[in-house]
Amino acid sequence: MNDADELAxxxxxxxxxxxxxxxxxxxxxxxxxxxxxVTSLVFFVLAGVLALLMRLQLAAPGQQLLExxxxxxxxxxxxxxxxxxxxxxxxxxxxxxxxxxxxxxRDMAFPRLNALGYYVYLIAGIVLFASLLxxxxxxxxxxxxxxxxxxxxxxxxxxxxxxxxxxxxEISALAAAVELIVTILKQRAPGMGLHRMPLFVWSVLVMSxxxxxxxxxxxxxxxxxxxxxxxxxxxxxxxxxxEPLLWQHLxxxxxxxxxxxxLVPALGMVSTIIGTFARRPVFGYTALVLSMxxxxxxxxxxxxxxxxxxxxxxxxxxxxxxxxAMIAIPSGVQVFCWVATLWGARVRWATPLLFVMGFFVVFVxxxxxxVMVASVPFDLQVHDSYFVVAHLxxxxxxxxxxxxxxxxxxWYPKFTGRLMSERLGRWSFGLTLLGVHLTFFPxxxxxxxxxxxxxxxxxxxxxxxxxxxxxxxxxVVLALGFALTLWNALASRRRGALAGDDPWGADTLEWAxxxxxxxANHHHIPVVGGRHPLxxxxxxxxxxxxxxxxxxxxxxxxxxxxLDAQPQAVVELPGPSVWPFLTSLAIATGFIGVIVxxxxxxxxxxxxxxTIVGWLWPRRPWREGGS
Length: 627
Fold this sequence. Notes:
Elements: H1 3-14, H2 19-23, H3 29-57, H4 68-103, H5 111-133, H6 158-186, H7 199-230, H8 244-278, H9 285-298, H10 314-326, H11 328-342, H12 351-373, H13 376-382, H14 386-416, H15 422-448, H16 465-495, H17 533-540, E1 556-560, E2 567-572, H18 579-593, H19 599-615, E3 622-624
Antiparallel strand pairs: 1-2, 2-3
Helix pairs in contact: 3-4, 3-5, 3-16, 4-5, 4-6, 4-8, 5-6, 5-18, 6-7, 6-18, 7-8, 7-9, 8-11, 8-14, 9-11, 12-14, 12-15, 14-15, 15-16, 18-19
């Protein structure tokens, strides 16, 4: 075949099925990654609506917009959605879409596992919000503390929905983490040794390992709580020999790394955007990589700083105070490297970089208050007050939403082939930055003046009226800022200016292919000779080095060595299949049915077994001789 015929055959081999039925069989990593991103943004909008309802309720004393039980459900759903159904899945979605493109490979290591993870995520979210519509949503907070979350104090099915859906969705997170780790370590383009990987890929690798170690404790905790509620075990029942404080240890051993699971990929996004718009290599590549790894390790030594008021031994608390302050060091290294990159550079001030600048301001302020609450005496004064609410939102909006929106503007041309509106982007950035400060800065003072968290109303005359009104007005401004970006993304899909393959003049391999990319990602697998392959190729000129030997008739990817990315073998990946969707339905049968009767879990187990047999029916998986 000539080159054109081979490329046509390659596109036909990797093409995803169309139509409604085809949607349930697609396994292409870009399709699944885009689904994760879009679905997470839908949940972001839903959680934002819930947040506005809470702020309207608290805008003035004695409001009756939400009754106490409904407020508790709205509060719980907002936190659960933001932490479990928006932030982490959005980061995973960007990673699933971009990492294979950045590595110069044609798909993830386990395409069907990729699809299963998305269906599990989607089903869990639908069930959770269905419980809210049925007024049976969880109401014990997104942290679901016992004994409040026990059967005695929460007798409905709301907490049962929370425990089963949280356990269920962890399947999705773990599936994504495993496949990202394998893809990054074994499917890099030849020559892309670990010392040449893009910083975003490094951040995704650290995030994935953190998920593997952080999610199992939460699964254990949620299963134990479900058993306490459904089959009357006594893991967390103090009067029967259980230990309520065990829940907090298990939950926060997951919960604090969770914050950094969200933050670390955001650091990779920020480094990528800064390098591109500063038009120079990011300063301190090795320092940035090591600081991300250090954050990944230190994040697991901080969980007790959420428990300073629980009566634990003071000597032990001092170690967690030190660790909580210590994690600011690698975070500071990142900031100094970014400042050094921008210093003296010919910076291109586009919307993605504006959101990165907003990240600097908001996240650093959140980090400073984090160091404050890491001190036991100060934490005892502001614990469970609105000061902590302000700190949490400065960290998460600064560390997640600003980088995500910057990444959306930056990679949107790669997703769609079109640019988002710069004018709308700048307005969105300005309103978002203003709204964050108007909404959450007053909450610091509310906390210092004694306003507790999780209250649905308050009396007049306490001195909280004006600050709450300001925070509620700021929430409207913040919502407008978010809405502009989401509208920008929707409108630019058809009306945005054509972007071309590399509108930013970037240096990483995702821009070496068409925008949007072909079904096979890269028609020719590139050979990498440095950390900035596109810049190197432009400087050197001439044809780009590529790999030969992969068949255009099979879904083949090149497997390379872990350290230096030398070719080792060629693996044939499975194609589109309905089995991941059927498996997700079978697993959902067990998890959702157990809320009604524990025997449903047995039914779901056997149904899952049958679908997995169909999924794993023997096939020839690989052949030797990659070159």
